[in-house]
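Hey Z.,

So I finally got round to the iron/sulfur cluster thing we talked about over coffee. Here's the setup:
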Amino acid sequence: MKKVNPILIDTYKREHTYLRISLTERCNLRCTYCMPAEGIQLSPKSHIMSFDEIYTIAKTFVDHGVTKIRLTGGEPLVRKDAHIILEKLATLPVELALTTNAVNLERHIETLKNCHIKNINVSLDSLNAEKFKEITRRDYFDKVYNNILSLVAEGFNVKINAVLIKGFNDNEIIDFIELTKTLPVTVRFIEFMPFDGNKWDIKKMVSLKEILDITTNSFSKEKLIRLDDAKNDTSKNYKIKGYKGSFAIISSVTNPFCDSCNRLRLTANGHLKNCLFSAEESDLLTALRAGKSIDTIIEKAIRLKAKMRGGMDTLEKLKTPDLHSKNRSMITIGG
Ligand code: SAM
Ligand code: SF4
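And the result:
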C-alpha cells in the first residue's frame, strides 16, 4: 500500500487519502437545501482554478499519498473543459470518481468510460417529476432518470443521493428502496445538513433512527440485511434480501463518522477545507500562482483539523445559526 506523507496526517492520526475537488460554483439546478433562492455571490472567473492548476494541485496531493479523487461542484459537468480535466486527472495513479446531478451526463459517458471512471454518484431527491421540479426549481426529472438508467446499462456503479426533508420526500423512502428491487444501484438517504442560506431546521431533518424505523416497519427482520461498511465509509449500508441493489444512510448530523474521516475538500477557487463543516479555509491557489510551495499550507490546514464536525461537536453547537452560517453554502463547498 502507498505510504502517506505525514503532512496528510492530523493530530488525531487520521490519514487524509481522499480529496474532493469542486470544479465550479455554478449549477444548472437550484436545489433548495443546497443554495439560497436568490442565488450566491460567485467568485470572479479569474479566481477559479484553471484545468492546469487543478491538475498541479491534485498531483501534489497524489504525490503525498492521496489515492482517491472525486470531482464535484456546483455541477462539475457544466464546466466547458470538464472533459479535459477528467482526461488530465485520469493520468494520475488515483481512483477517480464523480458526483453529478446527471442533467448533462449523456454528453460525457464516452469520456467517463475512457477515463476508467467506475463510481458515479447522482443526486435524485424524488421519484416524482413534480416534486423533483419543486426541490430543484428546474424541470429535468426525465433527463436525470433516463441518464441514471443509461449509466446502469453501461455498467457504472451508481449511487443515488437523496437528501430527505420531512413532509416533503420522507414518504418516498420505501419507493426508493423498491427501486433497488430491479435496479442494481445503491440509494443513499442523507440527513439534511445546515449550511449558510439553506434555511436548515432540525425539525425538517429525517434522522437515521427515523429512516430505520420506517424500513423496519415495512420489511421483516429476515428481509432487511445489514451489510458490512467499507473502511472510511460515511454510510451505514443495508439491502433487502433478493433485491439487486442496496440502500444506505448518511447520518452526518445525528451520528457523525468523524473518527474515520479521510477527506479533504478543494473549492473551485482553490481553497483547502479540512472539514465539510468548518468555516476555516486555506488558500492554495494564491500561493501556487505566486510560485510558492503549497506543502506548508496543506500541512498547517490538516494539523488544525478539529476532532469532530469543524468543532461543532454537539448537536446544540450544530444547531446554532451563528456557527453553521459562517460556513459557505454547500454549492460553493463541493459536497
Ligand atoms: N451537483 C452535484 C450533485 O448534486 O450531485 C454535485 C454537488 S452537490 C453539492 C453534492 C451533494 O451534496 C449532493 O448529493 C447533494 O444532495 C448534497 N447536499 C447539498 N446540500 C446538502 C445539505 N444541505 N444536506 C445534505 N446534503 C446536501
Ligand atoms: Fe446543484 Fe448539486 Fe447543489 Fe443541486 S445539490 S443545487 S445539483 S450543486
